[in-house]
User: Fold this.
Amino acid sequence: MSLLESFIDNVFRDKVPEPKIGSLVYCDIVTGYAEHSGIYVGKRRIVHLNGDGLIESVSPQEFIGRLSGFNTAMSIYVSCYETKAVGSYIVADRARIAVGKKRDYSLIFDNCHQFSAGCLAGDFDNSCNFMWMLKDESKKHLNSNSWRIWDIDLFK
Assistant:
């Protein structure tokens, strides 16, 4: 998704007030040519695999800010069914339990999408390394069929 598309989504598209616990979330990076994903665990915290291989719980600002220099995102997208956020407490629990663990991070072979898919399916040794694959996993495990912007001011 390009910066222009993200701007249009922010201005014109339906938003969700907050993800559900266990929602899959993502933002655009590298000028919209890639994405970064994580799991919303409540209380404005997202668990993700960072580029150093550490699984950590961060604020929405940190989720996007960790990628400064690469990230042109204006939004965090949330797994939804139609216009309502969808999530799972089981997915959130899997993410919370992983906080503090390390993985052998690789941009292609062991990345944030594989971690997020592991939270969805319970199998962290999966081959789900691209966003389109992760969206399929979200559809399968959360019944998501759309993505809405989290109605949050990331720049405060």
Q: What stands out?
A: The chain has a mean pLDDT of 87. Residues 131-142 form the longest helix (12 residues). Strands lie at 15-16, 24-29, 34-42, 45-49, 55-58, 77-81, 84-85, 146-150. The chain has one domain: 3-150.
